[in-house]
């Protein structure tokens, strides 16, 4: 008995047609909902330059904001490092004294009797 494969050709055609219609509807909705005059180069080659200029200006603003964020982060990191150094300098004598006590306890001084 051989293997028999059944195809629903009508369903395949309906799916293909629906996919095409959905893609066209999505493209139309993109055009309608966009604030730009042009979305793609195929719409208007001259208008695309305007869109690219607007995008470039927005990108430069984002870069500027990011640079300010990085600068603030670097300043915070430098301040944290400075605080760590000050704390270390303040705690160093205490740590040295504790170490000396620990060594003295580990190796007591032998006094002759």
Q: How many beta strands in the DSSP annotation?
A: 0
* Largest pleated sheet: none
Succession of helices and strands: HH
Shape assignment: elongated
Low-confidence stretches at least 5 residues in length (pLDDT < 50)?
Answer: none
Total DSSP helices: 2
Strand content: under 5%
* Distance N to C terminus: 109 Å
Our Rg estimate from Cα atoms comes to 37 Å
How much helix is in the residues? over 70%
Mean pLDDT: 80
User: What structural class should be given to the helix and strand makeup?
Assistant: mainly alpha
Give an overview in words.
The chain is mostly helical and 113 residues long. The protein has a domain at 12-37. The protein contains two helices and no strands. The radius of gyration is 37 Å and the shape is elongated. The relative contact order is 0.04. The mean pLDDT is 80.
